[in-house]
Amino acid sequence: MSTLQTRPEPQTRPPSGPPDRRRVRRKAVRTNWTIGLLALPAVAFFLVFSYLPMSGLVVAFKEFDVSLGIFGSPWNGLENFSYFLESGDAARILFNTLFLNILFLVATLAAGMVLAIMLNEIRSTFFKRVSQSVVFFPYFVSPVVISIILQVLLAGASGGGGAVNDALGGLGFPSVDWYTEPGPWPWILTVVKIWQLGGYLSVIFLAAITGIPEEVYEAGMIDGASRAQMAWRITLPLLKPTAAVLLVLGVGRIFYGDFGTIYAIVGDNGTLFDSTDVIDTYVFRALRQLGDFGTTAAIGLFQSVVGFVLVVIAVLIQRKYSKETSIL
Amino acid sequence: MSGKKLEPFTIVSVIGVSFAMLACAIPFWMIISGSLTSESELATTGYSLFPAAFDLTAYKMIFTGPAVLNAYFASVFITVVGTALSLAVTSGLSWVIARRLPGISRPLTVFSYLPMLFSGGLVPLYLLVTQYLKLQNSYFSVILPLLVMPFLVFVQVSAFRQLPESIFESAKIDGAGELRIFFTIAIPLSKPILAVVGLFYAVHYWNDWFMALLFIDDVHKFPLPLVLQNLISNISFTQMLPQLAEAATPVYQLRLALTTVAIGPILLAYPFAQRYFVKGITLGATKG
Fold first, then answer.
1. Across the interface, do B20 and A144 touch by the CB < 8 Å criterion?
2. What average pLDDT does range B173-198 have in this prediction?
């Protein structure tokens, strides 16, 4: 059967150089153009919402005037960039962006991995399924809801009390006025990120664990390894490629602060800016409160360029590391 | 994974997982319980694990006044219309990429994934939507910028590629065109994956507040998360809820009740939808 089907192939594609292949391709495009209609809406979407705004980045080099529009406004060179760099906010915001994102990335990956290994130990399928569902749930909750939960825990619904302070009191510690104390916030936000993403990442890692062949564990068992040793010596090393992919993807996005979560939680609470203000929240406030399009676009351009470079480096490293799981 | 005796590591794992479960579930429990606790009780304790003084005032207020129902309508509209549009656009694109057509699929892949790597950023998007498309205060200002999520294109492309090629070959021999193959064969065969992708989009739209924050100023058009956000930053949100002007308004309780109302649909749908979500990220993560 199969020989019958494959026989015509040599005739339709004679062994020859690139010009022929090009002709085949052109013919394919001609015969398949109707299928292109299916992609048309998506292409239009990307053109309008992704590629068109890229051209709008010229605002970064202009003194923007709403009445004149993007392309009619006068040029002002690098003034927007120097304004940001000289404002004194730049160093703090860049530091916060990098510091918080690295903290989030490492902490959530570690938590997801530990959670997946622990979930894998559970033998009761019912308990495993239920617990996996429960820890995955916070991923589906809006940052605004997370913000309210945090308020109830840290300050109480009414702004007095709060579960955490009550617990601290029970242990004999003094209570803390969390929302006026910038110091602990990087750690609070890290705990929030672990809570939000730990379950989600554990699902990914658990899928990777399921892919590990059973024989490896059987061999370990014959050699008398305990469950803990197998987790440490077999599962953990075999999860490295998955972790590497996620890490690389995360590194590429390190320059894009986590606007949703941070702004929903911190909002316009200026006392916490010292430790929580990142590029995205700064840009948003500058845009919303000052209406300063030029400077914010300049910061955005800076962010996009550095972000792009990071993504490219990350993808290159990842390609070298493992070819099959490459994203592009 | 056999072995009869219970090892210490297994016990530690069960304890660890149980702890993680509690840490994920208790905050929601506190919100729901607090929303059922009377305002005076909340004002003194700040939270409650069990409603000491059971009270439904806030829920009555939510479901009798028009304000929250408006917000609910806005959220439902954005979610339903957005998910339908996103699904249609995403499946069309994914199908063309998945077919591996010479001269079409590859350029299209690059064209679709490039925006993931480089974006114009917030300001050009803001100017585009407000100055050029004039979508301010329209629900479509929330829907359109979020229309296609590249991650879900990944998921759908890899699902389409798992369909057996021979079906399409034989359909072609029977004279079916590409469009016909897509609508009468590929789509009906892909119902499960459409459910996965649709659910991800739905959650995304339901939870979005950033686009709404940027583009919707009219309080009567606020979707639910934005109303909540306003209740956080501005306790006397009188502009939105006229009944709040009265002295005896349970502000704290109202906030928790509204939170419950906002997570309610996800919480109710979650037990049925959960396995689809797991399937979705597994497909996306293990894509070759």
1. no
2. 88
Provide the sign of the torsion angle of the four alpha carbons B253, B256, B262, B265, taken in this order.
Answer: negative
> Which ranges constitute the DSSP H helices of chain A?
2-6, 9-12, 18-31, 33-46, 52-55, 69-72, 79-86, 89-121, 125-136, 143-154, 163-170, 185-210, 214-222, 227-230, 236-252, 259-266, 273-276, 279-285, 293-321
User: What average pLDDT does the segment A11-39 reach?
Assistant: 65
Mean pLDDT is highest, among A19-33, A128-142, B113-127, for A128-142
The predicted model gives A161-181 an average pLDDT of 83
Closest CA to A101 of A295, A247, A271: A247
Dihedral sign for Cα atoms in the order A256, A262, A268, A270: negative
A163 and chain B in contact, CB less than 8 A: yes
Say which of A35, A57, A159 has its CB closest to residue B99.
Answer: A35
Q: How far apart are the first and last CA of chain A?
A: 36
Higher pLDDT, B120 or B78: B78
State the smallest CA–CA distance between residue A55 and chain B in angstroms: 8
Give CA–CA dist B97/A196, Å, rounded. 32
pLDDT of residue B227: 86
